[in-house]
Automatic annotation (TrEMBL):
It comes from the Eukaryota. Keywords: Repeat. The keyword RNA-binding does not apply. The gene is PKP2. One of its GO terms (cellular component) is adherens junction. GO terms for biological process: cell-cell adhesion; desmosome organization; heart development; intermediate filament bundle assembly; protein localization to plasma membrane. Transmembrane segments: none annotated. The keyword Repeat applies. This is Plakophilin 2.
Length: 85
C-alpha cells in the first residue's frame, strides 16, 4: 500500500532523526537533522492524511510517527523556537 510505505520511509529517514526523539540512542541523528527536510516530510504526511480515513489510520499506526511529531513540537516550544517553520 503506497501511503503505508511512504509514511514509514518518511518517518524512519526524516522525521525520527530530525525530531531528536532517539538522539541518546543514536547520536548520528543529530548530524542528519535538517529542519527543511522535516517540514517537507511533514507536508507530505499532511497531504497523505487528506486521502481519507484509511490513510489516516495507516499514519496513526506508523511506528514512531506520532511520537516523533509530539517530541519535535515539545522541543521546539521548550527551545522557544515557536516562530520556526
Amino acid at each position: 500500500m503506497f501511503p503505508e510505505e511512504t509514511a514509514s520511509i518518511l518517518t524512519k529517514t526524516v522525521l525520527v532523526p530530525t525530531s531528536g526523539i532517539f538522539k541518546d540512542d543514536n547520536p548520528k541523528h543529530e548530524l542528519n537533522a535538517d529542519t527543511e527536510a522535516f517540514c517537507n516530510a511533514l507536508n507530505c504526511i499532511q497531504n497523505l492524511s487528506s486521502a481519507g480515513d484509511n490513510t489516516r489510520k495507516v499514519l496513526r499506526d506508523c511506528e514512531n510517527l506520532i511520537d516523533s511529531l509530539v517530541y519535535y513540537i515539545r522541543r521546539t516550544v521548550d527551545d522557544k523556537n515557536a516562530d520556526d517553520k
